[in-house]
Structures are given as C-alpha cells and as structure tokens.
Specification:
Blueprint (H helix, E strand, L loop, with lengths): L1 H12 L5 H10 L5 E4 L4 E7 H13 L7 E4 L4 E7 L9 E2 L5 E2 L1 E2 L6 E4 L14 E4 L11 H13 L18
Antiparallel strand pairs: 1-8, 2-4, 2-7, 3-4, 3-9, 5-6
Length: about 170
C-alpha cells in the first residue's frame, strides 16, 4: 500500500512545474494544496458532488477500478482525473439532456490544487481531499470514453445541472 502511495505521489508530482519541490512540500505537509498542471500527466473533469457520487456508484456497481477522485467540499465539486492521451486535443464533454460538464485541460492552461495522495477521504473533512487515489502511476485514472458513458447515464437519470455545473438554486418567487 505504501509503495502504491509513493508511486502515486511521484506520478502526480510530475504534473507540477517543480516536481521535486512538490514532493518536498507534500513530505513536510501532506495536506498542502500544490498546483499541478492539467494536461501534463492527466486531464480533469469537474462535476457537481451529486453527479460525482452517482458516477462512482455506477463504477462500483460494475466493479470497475477507479482512482484519481478529489473532493472539494467548499465548492461541492468532484475532480475526476482522466487518463492523458498525449495525442488527444483539449477535452470537451457535452451530453444530452442539457447536461454539460466543464473540462479543464492543457489547452486552458489550468492547474489543479491537490493535496498529497496521503491525505485520504477521512482526513481534513473541510478541505480538498482524495476520495480515491490515482493508483500505481495513475493507472486507475478514468478513461474519457467510459467516463462519458457514465456521465450520460447520470444525465438519463434526470440529474441535470446548468452549464455552470452548480446545483440549481432554490426557487424564489421574488
């Protein structure tokens, strides 16, 4: 287990502008959020917490291993790390039922602020944390084609969110 976490650390750190500094920071303070360049070793799909929970339930039901799932409780968002295909263009995921899932990637020069994979799902409850680690050298990251199918299944359930990817606000008659 420890060896897997170490290899996840090294794989994730390769996405940092300064991988050695990233590893040093995480070694000293695992909960520190370090900027990782999206599109360097992984791409990222962000979805609302409820959508992310349903997607993971689909994967679990079919016993498909998944990894690379971050949760930001303040924004109620899941970050799903997607396998980086070096030949792929910047990602765009748009689905039926008016569900649109924003994707950040190298083309947008985005960064993901992530703690060390040592920070698991039960630690630091109010901070960004890993629900599932990316696994050995990122091997358990999501594949875009399979993830798109699962997102479509969620949309078919009627779980639709506006383009802002935030849960709809409560109705107001004002």
């Amino acid at each position: 287990m420890r060896n897997t976490i170490l290899q996840s650390l090294e794989w994730l750190a390769r996405a940092a502008d300064n991988p050695q500094r990233c590893l040093e920071e995480w070694n000293t303070t695992p909960a520190v959020l370090y900027p990782l360049k999206i599109g360097k070793t992984f791409d990222l799909v962000t979805v609302h917490q409820h959508v992310g929970e349903r997607v993971l339930a689909f994967y679990d039901r079919e016993r498909i291993p998944t990894g690379g799932v971050l949760f930001d409780p303040r924004a109620t968002k899941f970050g799903l790390l997607v396998h980086r295909d070096t030949d792929s263009p910047p990602l765009t995921v748009a689905l039926a039922c008016e569900a649109v899932y924003r994707t950040r990637c190298a083309g947008l020069r985005g960064y993901l602020l992530a703690p060390s994979p040592d920070v698991g799902p039960t630690e630091w409850r109010k901070a960004t944390r890993w629900l599932r680690r990316p696994g050995l050298l990122g091997m358990n990251t999501f594949r875009l084609d399979a993830l798109t199918v699962k997102l479509a299944e969620v949309a078919e359930e009627g779980m639709v969110f506006p383009i802002s990817d935030a849960a709809p606000s409560a109705y107001s008659s004002r």
